[in-house]
Amino acid sequence: AEQNLENIDLEQYPHINKGLAGIVAFSTTKSFIDGQTGDLIYAGYHIDTLAENATFEEVCFLLWNDRLPNQEELDELHNKLRSERQLPEPVIEYIKNTRKDAEPMAVLRTAVSMLADFQDDSNDTNHAIAVTAQIPTIIAAFDRVRNGKEVVSPLDEGSTAFNFLYMLNGEKPGQAAEKTMNLCLVLHAEHGMNASTFTCRTICATESDMFSAVTGAIGALKGPLHGGANTAVMNMLLNLKEQGENADPVKFTKEKLNKKEKMMGFGHRVYKTFDPRAVHLRKMSKELSEETGHEYLYEWSEAMVKTMKEEKNIDPNVDFFSASVYYSIGIQPDLYTCIFTMSRISGWTAHFFEQKANNRLIRPRALYVGEKNLDWVPVEDR
Ligand code: ACO
């Protein structure tokens, strides 16, 4: 039921809900989160089921259509994504010419914004497919350019996960690497009214276009309290590594808490228990760090989890174990949030469709706490 608070007199009811915590502003069929039990459902399917069975492309179709595709529909989606992977030449030129030490998320934001100029129609479905197909190409191209390597063009075959790793490394990935990347994409695809999705819907609600909404969402995801946390987690682990023989994850965690600093990758506005996505990433982190000789990363991560639970009763979120997973498969830490974007684009675009289908301008209020009766003082007298 919708509550009518439209004409609420803010002076009489000076209630501020800082951070909009607990406010329900939309209905959605895209995902359900139970923060107490640690359950997550995308359009009817539990995240555990999807993690075990789904490809990222099936998740895209599911989020866009609220049902799974049949084989023909899935093949069609694969074909469309493959045909859209190439970037317009000016976007490649921008990637080649921007600063090599620019933040990858900033480059991605600018490049996605540029993509809008090269769309021939105003069809939102086509735009969603184009932007989903092109984000991995942008990320891989920038990473190659900044490392002094040739840009690798996408192949006309393979999944999103396969092509991304191919364009990033210049060689076709093995099945295990593709499977890991696919699982990461499935796990990050959609998550209710998080800050970036809310940004996307807010921009959509002004009747602006999909590229503007996605560009804004990338800006929101970039921050360390949201998607930027996975890079921050890796930097934290690398800081610890620098301490060599003296590296002690328990002491490190306690010292951070004593200094009132946040442990990145922990805590969540909605989950008050273990993030169900972190369950899968934790397992992957263990397997991969053993395979690649980075056992210490997994062991330190577990020590931090235990200490955070004991000291603050706070559990890890999706960003915590994803850091050691990406590190183990050889991805540079500052690309982690870009990979998050590569996946979350599916959720953002799905919410764009949902918002547009039943739109109303998003416009909350602010309680004014400033002065009201000041007299004007001429500039020379101030
Ligand atoms: N480390 C230490 N203490 C924490 C952490 C943390 N990571 N997270 C929350 N707390 C503490 C706060 O200090 C606060 O304690 P207090 O009541 O004693 O002051 C209490 O828990 C509540 O924290 P808030 O920041 O008020 O909770 P909020 O719901 O506003 O924030 C957030 C949630 C931003 C995710 C927070 O937990 C955080 O900053 N975590 C670290 C960054 C991070 O990992 N972000 C990724 C989130 S998942 C995602 O967006 C994909």
From TrEMBL:
Gene3D superfamilies, sorted: Citrate Synthase, domain 1 (1.10.580.10), Cytochrome P450-Terp, domain 2 (1.10.230.10)
Presence of keyword Transferase = yes
* Keyword field: Transferase, Tricarboxylic acid cycle
* PROSITE patterns linked to this entry: CITRATE_SYNTHASE (PS00480)
Q: Which reaction does it catalyse?
A: oxaloacetate + acetyl-CoA + H2O = citrate + CoA + H(+)
Q: Enumerate the SUPFAM superfamilies for this protein.
A: Citrate synthase
Signal peptide annotation: none
Q: Which Pfam families match?
A: Citrate_synt (PF00285)
**Known pathway:** Carbohydrate metabolism; tricarboxylic acid cycle; isocitrate from oxaloacetate: step 1/2
Identify the domain of life: Bacteria
By sequence similarity, the record places it as follows: Belongs to the citrate synthase family.
Q: What is this protein called?
A: Citrate synthase
Source organism (scientific name): Rhodohalobacter sulfatireducens
